[in-house]
């Protein structure tokens, strides 16, 4: 192929046609081996793109160097361009990002420690009722059901617990 390229560069049109025919026969399987089965139909496009690039850049070929090395460099660049154009990049919809991104609640860690420390001042069941209803957003009915008590009893426990905490930490009277 090198001799054909040199003759073509010297103006031999017949040598140039033979070179293009040989390159076509050589490049088809070269690209086919590198393409995935789902992109095998693109081999002919890559052959044509490579031949076009060889034609437009033929004046850059260094006659003292091997032709196949230059040919492979051009073909490789066309192959890389193809892969970049047709690459399938995984995407995640923003609605589905929960498993990917961890919730950063470090700014609230000190607040949680303070609340936990304050709630140690009331009985454990009362602290749990306050935590469920006032912090976690559960209804009084839900919190009462979790503790096996009536809603009224849960309300009284929460009210007394909050009043006790207010008196303890707000400086109010008991």
UniProtKB/TrEMBL annotation:
Residue stretches making up the RNA polymerase sigma-70 region domain = 31-87
One matching Pfam family is Sigma70_r2
Family (UniProt): Belongs to the sigma-70 factor family. ECF subfamily.
Which NCBIfam families does the record cross-reference, listed alphabetically?
PRK12539.1, sigma70-ECF
Name the UniProt record assigns to this protein: Sigma-70 family RNA polymerase sigma factor
Indicate whether Protein transport appears among the record's keywords.
no
The answer, when asked if Transcription regulation is one of the entry's keywords, is yes
Keyword list (alphabetical) reads: DNA-binding, Sigma factor, Transcription, Transcription regulation
What is the organism field in this record?
Answer: Devosia marina
Give the taxonomic lineage as stored in the record: Bacteria, Pseudomonadati, Pseudomonadota, Alphaproteobacteria, Hyphomicrobiales
An MF annotation (GO) of this entry: DNA binding
Question: A GO BP term, please?
Answer: DNA-templated transcription initiation
Which residue numbers delimit the RNA polymerase sigma factor 70 region 4 type domain? 113-165
């Amino acid at each position: 192929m090198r001799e054909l390229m040199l003759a073509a560069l010297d103006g031999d049109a017949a040598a140039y046609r033979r070179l293009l025919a040989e390159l076509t026969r050589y490049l088809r399987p070269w690209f086919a081996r590198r393409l995935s089965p789902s992109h095998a139909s693109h081999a002919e496009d890559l052959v044509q793109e490579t031949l076009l690039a060889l034609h437009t850049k033929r004046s850059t070929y260094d006659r003292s160097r091997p032709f196949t090395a230059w040919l492979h460099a051009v073909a490789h660049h066309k192959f890389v361009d193809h892969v970049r154009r047709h690459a399938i990049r995984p995407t995640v919809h923003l609605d589905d990002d929960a498993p990917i991104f961890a919730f950063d609640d470090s700014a609230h860690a000190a607040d949680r420690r303070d609340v936990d420390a304050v709630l140690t001042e009331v009985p454990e069941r009362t602290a749990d009722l306050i935590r469920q209803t006032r912090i976690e957003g559960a209804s009084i009915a839900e919190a009462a059901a979790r503790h096996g008590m009536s809603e009224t009893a849960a309300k009284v426990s929460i009210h007394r617990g909050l009043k006790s905490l207010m008196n303890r930490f707000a400086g109010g009277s008991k």
